[in-house]
Amino acid sequence: MKNDTAALAAAQRSALEERLRTRQRELRDEVARQMRTQDDPRLVGLRNRLEDTDDWAAADAMAAMDIAEVSRDLAELAEVEAALVRVADGLYGECADCGEPIPYARLAAWPAAQRCVACQARAEAVQQARR
Q1: pTM metric for this prediction
Q2: Could you tell me which of 87, 94, 99, 75 has the C-alpha nearest to residue 15?
Q3: Which structural domains are found in the chain, ordered by start?
Q4: If phi over 0 gives left and psi between -120 and 50 gives alpha, with beta otherwise, what is residue 54?
Q5: Over the range 64-96, which residues count as b (16 or more CB within 10 Å of their CB) and which as e?
Q6: Using CA atoms, how far apart are residues 5 and 86, in angstroms rounded to an integer?
Q7: What does the alpha-carbon distance between residue 85 and residue 7 come to, in Å, rounded to a whole number?
Q8: Is 77 helix (H, G, I), strand (E, B) or coil?
Q9: Which of 3, 18, 35, 13 is nearest to 104 (CA)?
Q10: What's the rounded mean pLDDT across residues 27-44?
């Protein structure tokens, strides 16, 4: 990381790393919980009611919501784990695109951020243009 006044102080880096580790545990627990509930006996009554009413559109919508929630959590978990790799590699807090320090305020808002605000805006604009 470049020696810059915007660089993270050791205490800031440590606090952010702890937030990342906490979020990693939360996401892993949540994904595990979501996977366990797929065969949860409490859902049997709901499944039976859906079979009785033949409202499979509701069942499909619920399944899609479950899949979307798990997918969102897994995507966030991947971002958190990538940030922890950057911590271990000594690159945490450095923009992946321009190499400049990511301001603490941005990392405090989103500890898994891999880009500064300007580079993130450019990356999102490129992604939006591809759609």
Answers
A1: 0.72
A2: 87
A3: 10-130 (1.20.120.910)
A4: left
A5: eeeeeeeeebeebbebbeebbebbeeeebbbbb
A6: 20
A7: 18
A8: helix
A9: 13
A10: 69
